[in-house]
Amino acid sequence: xxxxTGIKYKLSGLxxxxxxxxxxxxxxxxxxxxxxxxxxxxxxxxxxxWNKPQHIKCKVAAGRYRDYTPAVWDPITKSCSLFIxxxxxxxxxxxxxxxxxxxxxxxxxxxxxxKAPLDTAEQVYFGDPSAIGHFFALMQLTNGLGKxxxxxxxxxxxxxxxxxxxFPSLSIDTVCSTEALAASSPLISDAPDRQFYLAGNSMMxxxxxxxxxxxxxxAHKIHAQxxxx
Length: 229
Ligand SMILES: Cc1cc2nc3c(=O)[nH]c(=O)nc-3n(C[C@H](O)[C@H](O)[C@H](O)COP(=O)(O)OP(=O)(O)OC[C@H]3O[C@@H](n4cnc5c(N)ncnc54)[C@H](O)[C@@H]3O)c2cc1C
Prior knowledge:
This is SIP-like Rossmann fold domain-containing protein. By secondary structure, the protein is of the alpha/beta class.
């Protein structure tokens, strides 16, 4: 067992030395309990070519990597923000909480996922706090055009207030559960030019997608990304 773990770490060490890229943490903001914004400088990145959401595979501990979505990027300074939900325990959460200005960031690569968002009149975002970066990225990719609405599922009431105060530019409300969203949101219905973007917990994304389809929303208008199980 110990030998197998040793081999695994040696292999990931070899992979890392072959592929790893480096950046630097510029600053860390704690928006509210559990929600960190890590602003990073990534000198090797060509952000001007980003036309879809991206994910960066960050080294969070020896042999451990986690995906996060770069948001609010600036191709000139080659900097972007990672909005990291640390409301649970895991190596990624522990890593994010430990970061300080000037720390090195090691990552295996950055790649796109999903499709380029459409410049439609109305974009509806449904997700959990792990999807904030994804939603900011969609806003940037559509140049802030169109009407944005939707809901973020934040379980604790005090965090819901803090969320809305922290992210006023993300003009979407908060609800306490998928069930509450399904029961109360007038947005769970079809409308011309309305596109739906779902991201976060895979079960939540799956059930919201199913619900939207039951309400007659065509599959091509639902863009779903399961981030974690
Ligand atoms: C393409 C892509 C983009 C992503 N972008 C982001 C992003 O921008 N910001 C972000 O915060 N996450 C993002 N994620 C999700 C992130 O990679 C996972 O949440 C990851 O599992 C966190 O690692 P961890 O080490 O903290 O927890 P893990 O060790 O992976 O999990 C530990 C436990 O915590 C639970 N858990 C994991 N994540 C959450 C969560 N968010 N809330 C509650 N419980 C959780 C797991 O079910 C497990 O039980 C993205 C994932 C993908 C695939």
